[in-house]
Amino acid sequence: xxxxxxxxxxxxxxxxxxxxxxxxxxxxxxxxxxxxxxxxxxxxxxxxxxxxxxxxxxxxxxxxxxxxxxxxxxxxxxxxxxxxxxxxxxxxxxxxxxxxxxxxxxxxxxxxxxxxxxxxxxxxxxxxxxxxxxxxxxxxxxxxxxxxxxxxxxxxxxxxxxxxxxxxxxxxxxxxxxxxxxxxxxxxxxxxxxxxxxxxxxxxxxxxxxxxxxxxxxxxxxxxxxxxxxxxxxxxxxxxxxxxxxxxxxxxxxxxxxxxxxxxxxxxxxxxxxxxxxxxxxxxx
Length: 285
Description:
Elements: H1 10-20, E1 22-28, E2 31-38, E3 44-48, H2 62-67, E4 71-76, H3 95-106, E5 112-117, H4 119-129, E6 135-141, H5 166-180, H6 189-199, H7 214-218, E7 226-231, H8 242-248, E8 254-260, H9 267-270, H10 272-283
Parallel strand pairs: 3-4, 3-5, 5-6, 6-7, 7-8
Antiparallel strand pairs: 1-2, 2-4
Helix pairs in contact: 3-4, 5-6
């Protein structure tokens, strides 16, 4: 039996999770989708990371899920992390096929609980609307594409204009503060290391669908219950959080919507304890 990851922190937690995981590969064009799986028994929760991310977006959440008895499955989505770029496009609409096929190969006929963060929330919504086999519940975390009104541009800086080292790390810190994390104290060395490793492996940079209202228009076709968790200071919806509630209400089986105090967009990292408690409730029958 795969051991439950120990309660450690920082890069030590990353190494412990990597050591405890079973790594699997499923097709993606001429390459593969890389999956990390923890646990052999219990219900299955699938975690989809955000844009320019990887499974490490869930560093502070996997252990809590395992301790609660879940089997945890976290892919690097096609075009991110260690997975191959999809051969058929560069946006959210081409990813559901490869992920659904992978899940059917790895976990045929299993009931699934699906959690999608940011860009992964849009992908998860598309998978749910397409009728992902066995899907029991969808949980959206900081998902985009809920309004036709575009958000104001963010002053992100070009990290690849700087050489590796302190100057590039400073750009990563700026971008984390601008988009991902509300409290400057949350931008620790681990966050910078994870973000740098993830964004430098992003091969899906022509993402456009998350800027419109595709998820808003998709939610009416999602048959399973839908819950939501957002950071109260999520920069994607600054000054317009009512948009989230309106969008969630479009799901025929809309459930709870929780805003985590003091958290920004990467809520599951910044306020992990509060997020893990909210996720446990969102996943409960």
